[in-house]
Design goal:
The protein is mainly alpha-helical. It has 19 helices and 6 strands. Helices cover 64% and strands 7% of the residues. Belongs to the ferroportin (FP) (TC 2.A.100) family. SLC40A subfamily.
Length: 597
């Protein structure tokens, strides 16, 4: 006698659909009587589940096709004797299927429910939610307490990060009246992200979430403190020419620390936006997930407003060394707060972040290779880069992602290190420069509300086109104002800055809508890999533009750089609109909910 036993399965189904084929389309009383609760003198199945009692059924002359959607299946042990076994892949897990033959199951006949009663009992046990209840459930986060603790952790981390993103270019720009040091540092940092982004993404996909997140926070804070120490040292020594600054040891250390800090920040951002928030809000709760995404954007932008304004005010009243020491103190105090809030997030979410990721070390596919160690680190890194780029170019929403990448060529007509250095060298008060960056971030906060209205009115895809077109139009006018040559006067300069501030509304609108487009088109199992690779591609675009800035580092060439920046934004709008006007069948399938398609 052949026997098969499957012990300790853990099953969780979101949806289970079965359709009966052929002449067995109806369940008669005779067929139903062959459905057993136990198998006697035949093969048996031992099923242990936390949500149901043990049941054993046998089926004769019954064929079905079943589909399982959003299913987690884990089988700890399978013991089989004299039986054929096939396997099926569910997600990235391989599940053994034991093929039971009907002739063995015909040996006994036990009384049971009749066919009609059995079907009726199945139908009565399936809960049916009303449309109102479905909307309520979709808008309710899976782990609300953990989500709030996660928001607090993001607030503490983003405030320090945004303050530092404004502090270091301002402090370096005060060393010498040239864009070259800032451009060189940004260029080399982007190269590190291009190479290390896919590798870090792959490592995070195969590492425990909470320990790796805390480790990256510690690395980022340490790199920020080291960078602050190097800039303080540079301000205490005698001034030097730009070429000699690039050859100083402290500048080499500053570049290395800055690259590590940015790479850690990119990895933390991808983990928060593509992984953590999805688990805490609920992958099957779209309204709650959309609301959580909006809250994260608002936190980031509000921190940018607070961080830039705070450091700008400090820099207008105190010397750069004092301001950098205050910033370093804030970094030291915020790190234990972030670590505590991270552990609290996991605790309040009932350990959802501790759950093993599908396709983790024990269930990895053969084409991914082993986890990196000291011996194969280089080979694994190269393979991770190739795998990440291959997955990136095969994603179904590639044109939307490439439009997002083209926006990274705009390195001067946007709030950032180069614009901060440019305005500083023109003699503007640091508080005015901080206010400019804060207003750009405020436009981003407004975009989190505006984007929802755009999506309701135009649909998700056309909303992205509206944002890009709006940004391209305003930046074209801003460049025309700059090329008029009247920026030496106060009014044209303020008009130029106001146009850039308003263009941020369109940029952030597309940033928010584009994130939802990419979340829809990219499988969750590849979110970290494709997300970090996308950042690497964007960093490649930005590094190319920074290379041009290095060659044309004089402030007098700013108009030429601004023209290149506005052409990249116009190109992004053209590429996205062209993709929108020629939708493919796959695009229609992915965005079938969009009323405009």
């Amino acid at each position: 006698m052949a026997m098969a036993a499957i012990t300790n399965p853990q099953l969780s189904f979101n949806l289970f659909n079965c359709s009966v084929t052929g002449r067995e389309a109806s369940i008669s009383r005779q067929t139903a009587s062959r459905i057993r609760y136990r198998f006697s003198s035949s093969r048996w199945l031992s099923l242990n589940s936390s949500s149901a009692t043990n049941r054993r059924y046998s089926f004769d002359s019954f064929k079905s096709r079943c589909s399982i959607v959003n299913t987690d299946v884990h089988l700890n042990h399978v013991a089989v004797e004299d039986e054929d076994i096939s396997t099926v892949d569910i997600g990235c897990c391989t599940t053994p299927i034991v093929q039971l033959k009907s002739d063995v199951l015909e040996a006994e006949s036990l009384s049971m429910l009749t066919g009609d009663t059995y079907v009726d009992s199945l139908l009565t046990t399936l809960p049916v939610l009303t449309e109102e209840e479905q909307k309520t459930l979709a808008a309710t986060p899976a782990h609300p307490e953990g989500l709030y603790a996660f928001y607090a952790s993001c607030l503490a981390g983003n405030l320090v990060e945004q303050l530092w993103n404004f502090a270091w270019p301002s402090a370096i720009a005060l060393l010498h009246p040239s864009l070259l040091p800032v451009a060189v540092m940004g260029f080399l940092t982007k190269l590190v992200i291009i190479i290390g982004g896919p590798l870090v993404g792959k490592l995070m996909d195969h590492s425990p979430r909470v320990p790796s997140y805390i480790f990256l926070n510690v690395v980022q804070a340490s790199a920020q403190l080291l960078s602050a120490a190097m800039i303080i040292h540079a301000h205490t020594v005698s001034p030097a020419s730009t070429s000699s600054i690039l050859l100083r040891p402290w500048f080499a250390v500053l570049v290395l620390a800055g690259a590590i800090e940015r790479l850690s920040g990119v990895a933390l951002g991808v983990a928060m936006e593509r992984d953590w928030v999805v688990l805490l809000a609920g992958i099957n709760r779209p309204i709650a997930l959309a609301q959580a995404n909006a809250v994260l954007n608002r936190i980031d932008l509000l921190c940018e407003i607070a961080g830039t304004s705070l450091f700008g005010i400090l820099l207008s009243k105190y010397d750069p060394v004092t301001c950098l020491k205050l910033a370093a103190s804030l970094m030291v105090w915020s790190l234990p707060i972030m670590i505590s809030l991270t552990w609290l997030t996991n605790k309040l979410s009932t350990g959802v972040l501790d759950r093993a990721k599908c396709c983790q070390a024990s269930r990895r596919t053969s084409d991914e290779g082993p986890l990196p160690d000291a011996q194969n680190f280089v080979n694994t890194g190269l393979e991770a880069i190739k795998h990440g780029w291959r997955e990136y170019v095969q994603q179904p929403v590639l044109p939307a992602s490439l439009a997002y990448v083209l926006l990274y060529f705009n390195v001067v007509l946007t709030p950032g290190s180069l614009m901060t250095a440019f305005l500083t060298q023109r003699g503007l008060n640091p508080s005015v420069i901080g206010g400019f960056n804060g207003l750009c971030a405020f436009m981003g906060v407004a975009a989190t509300f505006l984007s929802a209205s755009l999506v309701r009115r135009f649909g998700i895809l056309k909303a992205g086109a509206v944002g890009l077109t709006f940004q391209a139009s305003l930046l074209t006018i801003a460049v025309a104002v700059y090329q008029s040559g009247t920026l030496s006067q106060r009014s044209p300069l303020l008009l130029f800055l106001c146009l850039i501030v308003l263009s941020s509304l369109g940029h952030m609108s597309y940033d928010i809508v584009g994130a939802q487009i990419l979340q829809t088109g990219i499988p969750s199992s590849k979110a970290n890999l494709i997300g970090t690779t996308e950042i690497s591609v964007a960093s490649l675009a930005e590094s190319l533009m920074l290379g041009v800035v290095i060659l044309a580092n004089d402030v007098s060439h700013f108009g030429f750089l601004a023209m290149l920046s506005v052409l990249s934004v116009v190109g992004a709008a053209w590429m996205f609109c062209r993709w929108l006007l020629n939708p493919t069948e796959e695009q229609r399938s992915l965005f079938s909910f969009d009323p405009q398609l």
